[in-house]
Design the sequence.
């Protein structure tokens, strides 16, 4: 379990790419970004026999949409409370992003 993400296309801003990827992957169109939060992680994976490094940047957003329409890239989703989401996430770096987002929201109420 992890967050939607993808590549920035040529000419796109970070927010434009995030908006497009979220729409493509989970069908959410009514994204309102929350100013002041931007975190990133670096990770490695193998592709074509080569080690590839990727940097993923995460923004915080709000939506009123509850019903999700998953793309072929995903198997399932869940809307969870913070503690449940922290337990559900697969990778430690995603858990760290969620912790930072939660801290940001608590400090900026």
Sequence:
């Amino acid at each position: 379990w992890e967050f939607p993400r993808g590549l920035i296309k040529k000419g796109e801003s970070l927010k434009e790419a995030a908006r497009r990827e979220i729409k493509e992957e989970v069908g959410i169109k009514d994204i309102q970004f929350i100013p002041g939060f931007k975190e990133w992680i670096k990770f490695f994976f193998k592709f074509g026999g080569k080690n590839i490094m990727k940097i993923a940047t995460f923004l915080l957003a709000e939506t009123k949409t509850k019903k999700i329409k998953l793309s072929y890239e995903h198997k399932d989703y869940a809307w969870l409370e913070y503690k449940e989401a922290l337990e559900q996430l697969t990778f430690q770096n995603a858990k760290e992003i969620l912790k930072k987002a939660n801290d940001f929201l608590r400090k900026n109420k």
Observations:
- Strands lie at 32-47, 50-62.
